[in-house]
Amino acid sequence: MAIQHPLQFDYGNHYNFSTFYAGNNQELIQQLQKNASGKGEQQIFFWGSQGLGKSHLLQACCFEAHLKQRSNFYLLLESEALPDPDILLGLEKTQLVCIDNIDNITGNQEWEYALFRFYNLHQELQNHLIISSSSPANALNISLPDLKTRLGWGLNMKINSLNDEQRIAALTMKAQTMGLELTPRTANYLLTRCVRDLPLLWEFLNKIDHATLAAQRKPTIPLIKEILQQNQSL
Fold first, then answer.
1. Which of these ranges, 77-81, 138-142, 214-218, has the smallest mean pLDDT?
2. Distance CA 177, CA 58 (A)
3. Where are the domains of the chain?
4. What 3 state SS string does the chain have?
5. Which numeric CATH code is attached to 164-230?
6. Residue 120 phi/psi, 5° resolution?
7. What predicted TM-score, i.e. pTM, was given to this entire model?
8. Separation between Cα atoms, residue 234 and residue 228, nearest integer Å
9. What is the pLDDT of residue 2?
């Protein structure tokens, strides 16, 4: 029986290249865009710590492929809720497959063998593959040696973290996509008074957005102080 692959995300969301602040990751983004368009390296493996936007970039790749009318699939591998490895059956025919958090299947023999089989079939069809991880391919605790070797093929790149100036620029850019007028001074205050983890900052921006709508006010520092007092965990 053919496997029915569910739609993993909405193509109309904000996860595209235009809403990602590149910082010093321009080369990585250029390579991802080429791959998503069916050009450049057939396989890209990129890695970095949590909160740098790996999931955003993978979904941006699928969105780019969608615009080019290329079949695509985004597969999120969560450690606490791994899908059945059968989800890979037939997926080799997809022109672009993006696998998020590959490190979460390490040591899982069933998943490793299924991924090895998929990899060989997908490559034979000359389709494109993009994989993200928290560590380099050669540092993964993969039990199947042949799979570990194949993960090291193609282009391997690290996603770099942002410095404070770049974080402020990223915050300002993210706010603009939400329709918020966040000044550099306000963004700097938010960065120094709130958590520095970007995903949590994005979550806090949502709280600011809701508060500004409810109070019919701009996102000023006094308003942010009020929201921070209500969310002291941040």
1. 214-218
2. 19
3. 17-158, 164-230
4. CCCCCCCCCCCCCCCCHHHCCCCCCHHHHHHHHHHHCCCCCCEEEEECCCCCCHHHHHHHHHHHHHHCCCCEEEEECCCCCCCCHHHHCCHHHCCEEEEECHHHHCCCHHHHHHHHHHHHHHHHCCCEEEEEECCCHHHCCCCCHHHHHHHCCCEEEECCCCCHHHHHHHHHHHHHHCCCCCCHHHHHHHHHHCCCCHHHHHHHHHHHHHHHHHHCCCCCHHHHHHHHHHCCCC
5. 1.10.8
6. -65, -45
7. 0.85
8. 7
9. 40
Helices 221-230 and 184-193 sit at what angle, rounded to 10 degrees?
A: 20
Specify burial of residue 178 (Cβ count, 10 A radius: 0-12, 13-18, 19+). Answer: middle
Q: Hey, what are 170's tokens?
A: 């990223």
CATH superfamily of 17-158: P-loop containing nucleotide triphosphate hydrolases (3.40.50.300)
Locate tokens 């909405």: which residue?
A: 10
Q: What is the pLDDT of residue 7?
A: 45
